[in-house]
Write a structure and sequence with these properties.
- Helix content is 18%, strand content 39%.
- The chain has eleven helices and 71 strands.
- Among the domains are: 293 residues, YVTN repeat-like/Quinoprotein amine dehydrogenase (Methylamine Dehydrogenase, Chain H), CATH 2.130.10.10; 105 residues, Immunoglobulins (Immunoglobulin-like, Sandwich); 107 residues; 162 residues, Heat Shock Protein 90, CATH 3.30.565.10.
- By secondary structure, the chain is an alpha+beta fold.
């Protein structure tokens, strides 16, 4: 995959080779560097490592006896070439990362080049490629041994073209090492000699052993940034003698402090600070720093004492290849001093800065050492000093040391060690804390008292409940002192007056552990959970709520920039003065801090001794944790300025691994997607942080922390771009990062055509539903119109057959009366008749309205409706009426029920008006169907009227129309001898709400028989 990060980063190897600022700090001891080891026996590497190199993309490559391994600081990944490509030999003896991004691989058989996913082999070469070198012009040089192709031991590659130099141009047949010389020359190290070679001319050294008694063979070679060259030539004798080529000639340097012979030297390396590193066969690593020699071997954690080569990467980390693994040494922000660096015991519990730029260290409560100019000297114990249990110590303005020893106070007055006693000669008691006020009075919290000492005599002695609980003292610029109590209170004492300031938080009674006072009188202090500030009588607490990374604060110290450093359980916390000032103005505000943790070398710890921190005159800050001494130089923190190169390494889709290439196309229905990425920073890989986002899916940056995989389970088809960025251990971001564009192919049902077809189908269905709805609305409206028309027709029939006829008769009566208007008796009789006719019209109108409302007032009782119809005054007094019911009424459809009611009402009314009968029977039968019979014994109906109806009358026609509307069957039988019978049958599935089975009907009839459901009524 092509790396999408700034092109200037491709020049990093050349930049780093010229700039020693990005190297390990030469002032540190080897044992103070951070060290990490990976051993083959632990499975970290496959095969024994022999070579190491870094390519411009940031990866480290390790060549082993079994193949090539790629390392990103967190994972070793065996390298496998693409299908159809392979190395000519799996044994790798040399590696080179060139400036064009290539990785040159020297094997036991030939040479290969890996770049941009392509492997190029040079099968015309043979032999073992021992050394690879790139010169200033970008030419690749290789030296080899055991060649059988007669092409010569030295070859160059320019523009991928190979050219070799034979033995007529190169003075010896086998080349073990190459190094850059001055003015384009190349150092060639062979078995018998050393040569400074240019095309066409060369100069041989050590061939005739002139000046080098017992010369045997060449061992190691390297050139430093200053252009000088170091060489190891095998020679007899127990003292190591190295050759140093400076100003055109060789100078021998002896190293009697290095207990190895020249024959045991396996590698020489000059780092970017021009410091010489020596690898040996049996004694590990030696480093020569000016006149000091340091040693680092298996007892220090080195993977093996057999060192094969050295390498310094882009960030300045030193890599050591051994026969059993791989090691690195790198800078830390915090330096550690233990017994290996000169402490008398691994128990540093208290530190104190001296006025002469030194540092006092109290160890194991009984040893006091002074660190001056990088060396430790012993101060205590010494003869004449009583006791061994020191509780605290203090240096006054005159450089005198005050000690709390066992139950008393002692002072070292320029060599004279004297006790400080009460007037009665008794000791002061256990000393908890010592300070000095502006008048150079020494204040001591000892036993239950607070004592002020002037001229080695107690001038004042105070005691109180608060004094007895004071844990620490600090001098104030106004001449007074500040006491920190075990219950969290602060007490200001000045001129005999004590003023208490409790914690600003109710219930906070944590012990005050450490204090310091600014020149303006501001008191800064710590408890287990907070940093607090006291100005005047106002106190504010700064806790994790304000942004502190953790609680568990042990001590504090200020640097030269007035920033406060907190020694806490999570590491060193730095708070800039500007952040503190802003917080004081707004105590609830959130502050920004810098945290240095274990990856930076911090080893937090709490001690019972005071002081636990100090600042020396050179600005360095010192911390004691009860075991070791630690130091940091805030003004010269060696920050890592290099943005880490970022790579996308693989894409795993539904368990299938894909190589990350731009435009990667994933199969349809991909659900589980894992994208692996990395950032190539080796100073502190565990502190590398990532951000990523998937353009096309994520609205903002995701914060995975140190996780090096992104997971997605809900991606649909489409095009995406994965963008990942990273920062190094010091917070320097590579904002360009790496990008990977890919797409997920749609399934057939996710294609645009399918979506268009679905959209078209939805539109068609919606249109069809719309049309269906329109038709339903139209049908409903037509049905309502039909119902209105039918109702109007029915009302017309009702009014025509009843009300209109009565009104017409009333008009005839009135007209008859008007013809004889002069006859009062006739007029009176006519008005009487008219009153009767109008009353009858009123009754007929009410009957019509009753027929409209009866279906809403009576739910299922048709018999009751018919019974009321027979009780009207239209029934002649001579007519006997019987209403009977067979079966049990069920739940009926109201519209159908209403039509039946109106049909029966019309039949009863016609019989009462026209039949001239003396008996009328009305029968309702509830069975599978509903049957209504209305029978009289009158004169019958004229057959012609029965068939076609009577002109101007619509009773029979209305009954037939209603029967047809409800799906019933109407039968009319009439004769002059037997009267008229009207029979209406309505199917049960139309009239009844629920189907009525035959069995249910039979049961209903049985129930009716036993319970007397059949009933009849007679009127007349």
């Amino acid at each position: 995959m092509r790396i999408l990060w700034p092109r200037w980063l491709w020049l990093l190897p050349a930049i780093f080779a010229l700039n020693s600022a990005w190297a390990v700090d030469p002032s540190w001891l080897l044992s103070q560097y951070a060290h990490t080891s990976w051993k083959t026996v632990d499975g970290a590497l496959v095969g024994s490592p022999a070579a190491i190199a870094q390519t411009t993309d940031g990866y480290l490559w390790i060549g082993t006896t079994l193949g090539l391994v790629r390392f990103d600081g967190a994972r070793f990944v065996p390298w496998n070439p693409p299908p159809g490509q392979r190395l000519l030999d799996s044994r790798i003896f040399s590696l080179l990362g060139s400036r064009d991004g290539s990785l040159w691989i020297g094997t036991g058989y030939s040479l290969s080049r890996w770049k941009d996913g392509q492997l190029t082999n040079y099968p015309q070469l043979s032999g073992r490629i021992e050394a690879l070198l790139e010169d200033a012009a970008g030419t690749i040089w290789l030296g080899r041994t055991q060649a059988t192709d007669q092409m010569g031991p030295l070859c160059q590659i320019q523009s991928l073209q190979l050219q070799c130099f034979g033995t007529d141009e190169v003075p010896f047949p086998n080349i073990l090492q190459l190094a850059r010389g001055n003015d384009g020359a190349i150092w060639l190290g062979g078995y018998p000699e050393l040569c400074l070679w240019r095309p066409g001319r060369s100069r041989i050294y050590f061939r005739n052993r002139s000046g080098f008694e017992g010369f045997s063979s060449f061992k190691a070679l390297d050139t430093g940034p200053d252009g000088s060259t170091w060489a190891a030539i095998d020679s007899p004798g127990p003292v190591l003698r190295l050759q140093h080529f400076v100003d055109g000639r060789w100078r021998e340097q002896r190293f009697p402090d290095i207990p190895v012979r020249n024959s045991q030297v396996t590698a020489l390396f000059v780092d970017r600070n021009n410091q010489l590193w020596i690898g040996t066969r049996e004694r590990g690593v030696f480093r020569v720093k000016r006149d000091r020699v340091e040693h680092f071997d298996r007892t220090d954690g080195l993977s093996s004492d057999f060192v094969r080569s050295f390498y310094q990467d882009h960030e300045g980390t030193i890599w050591i290849v051994t026969s059993a693994g791989l090691d690195n040494l790198r800078d830390l922000h915090v330096a550690t001093y233990s017994m290996r660096q000169g402490l008398a015991a691994d128990g540093a519990g208290s530190v104190l800065a001296s006025h002469d730029s030194g540092l006092w260290v109290l160890e194991n409560n009984e040893i006091v050492q002074k660190l001056q100019n990088g060396r430790f000297s012993l101060f205590l114990p010494r003869p004449g000093v009583p006791g061994h249990h020191l509780s605290t110590f203090f240096e006054d303005h005159a450089g005198r040391l005050w000690f709390g020893i066992e139950n008393g106070l002692f002072v070292d007055d320029h060599g004279e060690f004297r006790p400080i006693l009460h007037a009665d000669g008794t000791p002061l008691g256990i000393v908890f804390s010592i300070t000095e006020d502006t008048a150079h009075g020494i204040w001591v919290r000892a036993g239950p008292n607070l004592d002020r000492i002037q001229d080695f005599k107690i001038q004042a002695e105070l005691t109180s409940t608060q004094i007895r609980t004071a844990y620490i003292l600090a001098a104030a610029p106004d001449g007074g002192i500040v006491l920190g109590l075990v219950d969290g209170e602060l007490v200001r004492y000045r001129n005999g007056e004590m003023r208490s300031v409790a914690s600003s938080e109710t219930g906070n009674t944590s012990q005050i552990r450490d204090m310091t006072v600014d020149p303006d009188g501001t008191v800064w202090g710590t408890t287990v959970n907070e940093l607090f500030a006291l100005r005047g009588l106002k106190r504010e607490n700064l806790t994790a709520r304000n942004g502190l990374p953790c609680d568990g604060i042990f001590a504090l110290v200020q640097d030269d920039a007035h920033a406060i450093w907190l020694y806490s359980k999570c590491g060193l916390i730095r708070i800039a003065r500007s952040e503190l000032d802003n917080w004081w103005q707004q105590p609830s505000s959130f502050i920004h801090t810098t945290l240095l943790d274990q990856a930076d070398g911090v080893q937090p710890g709490l001690t019972s001794l005071k002081p636990q921190t100090a600042r020396t005159a050179d600005g360095r800050l010192w911390f004691a944790n009860g075991r070791v001494l630690q130091s940091i130089d805030p003004a010269h923190l060696a920050e890592n300025p290099i943005p880490p190169p970022v790579q996308v390494e693989s894409v795993v889709a539904d368990g299938n691994t894909h190589l990350p290439r731009q435009g990667l196309r994933l199969p349809p229905r991909t659900r589980d997607l894992e994208i692996a990425y990395t950032a190539l920073s080796y100073v502190a890989p565990q502190k590398v942080r990532f951000r990523y986002r998937l353009e096309g899916r994520d609205a903002g940056w995701q914060e995975p922390g140190t996780r090096r995989q992104a997971f997605y389970t809900d991606l649909g088809p489409g095009r995406y771009t994965f963008h990942v960025i990273a920062r190094n251990n010091d917070g320097v971001w590579n904002d360009t990062g790496a990008r990977l564009s890919f797409s997920i192919a749609p399934a057939w049902y996710q294609t645009v055509w399918f979506e268009l077809a679905c959209a078209l189908f939805v539109l068609v269905v919606a249109w069809a539903l719309y049309q269906l709805r329109i038709r339903q609305i139209a049908a409903a409206m037509n049905a309502r119109f039909d119902e209105r028309l039918d109702e109007r027709t029915r009302l017309a029939r009702e009014f025509h057959d009843t009300l209109l006829q009565t009104i017409q008769g009333s008009k005839m009566v009135a007209d008859d009366a008007l013809d004889e208007s002069a006859d009062p008796a006739r007029m009176h009789h006519a008005l009487e008749r008219l009153s009767v006719w109008l009353g009858q019209a009123t009754q007929e109108g009410r009957a019509a309205l009753h027929s409209l409302r009866v279906s809403t007032t009576q739910r299922n009782d048709l018999a009751e409706a018919f019974r009321r119809a027979t009780e009207s005054d239209r029934i002649p007094g001579s007519m006997s009426v019987a209403v009977s019911v067979v079966g049990v009424p069920g739940e009926m459809h109201p519209v159908v029920r209403d039509e039946i009611c109106r049909i029966g009402y019309e039949a009863i009314r016609n019989a009462s008006l026209h039949s001239q009968a003396d008996r009328l029977d009305v029968e309702l039968s509830y069975a599978q169907d509903l049957t209504l019979r209305v029978k009289d014994n009158g004169v019958g109906i004229d057959p012609l009227v029965l068939d076609t109806g009577k002109d101007g009358h619509f009773g029979l026609q209305g009954m037939r129309e209603r029967t047809a509307r409800i799906g019933g069957r109407l039968t009319l039988l009439s004769s002059a001898a037997s009267g008229t019978e009207i029979k209406l049958v309505v199917p049960g599935n139309i009239i009844f709400r629920a189907p009525r089975s035959a069995r249910w009907t039979l049961l209903a009839r049985i129930r009716s028989f036993f319970l007397g459901t059949n009933h009849s009524s007679n009127t007349g």
